[in-house]
Amino acid sequence: GRVFVNDEALLSRRQAALLMVSSLAAIVLSYVWLTDYLPQARQTIIPLFGLLIFAGAFNQGVVAKILSARACVVLGEISYGIYILQLPIGSWFAGSHGFRGWSSLYLLTYLVSLIAISYLSFRWLEEPVRRWVRARTSSQRPPAGLSESALGMPS
Fold this sequence. Notes:
By secondary structure, the chain is mostly helical. It is built from six helices and no strands. The protein is extended, with a radius of gyration of 21 Å. The mean pLDDT is 77.
């Protein structure tokens, strides 16, 4: 969070774009090339994703415009549901539909179902619980050592 407190950017737009492209290329190359020779090399990709996210935070070009599109924002909001529900929904699909492999239609049906159920989970479970927790905790004082103004709260 401290990186974004100051108005001064650590990276220019050009540097951020270059860092994004190079980290994305390194991710693809690492996955395609290294995993064929060293299966454990997939672990090298993890820090590259961190670098990609870091660079993306400074980029305000085409990538930022694409990621701020409504569909991408909604996918970002429901991503936790997708992560949590992918296995149970996949298991249900495999068990109840006589799984015979991932045909294109089967995969499309699974993905549409996963996204739809994740959206419903976000809308009817995650959001109400988040509002409830915020309402319950909004009157709490900040931890010792932190002023309310440092947290952006009015005095």
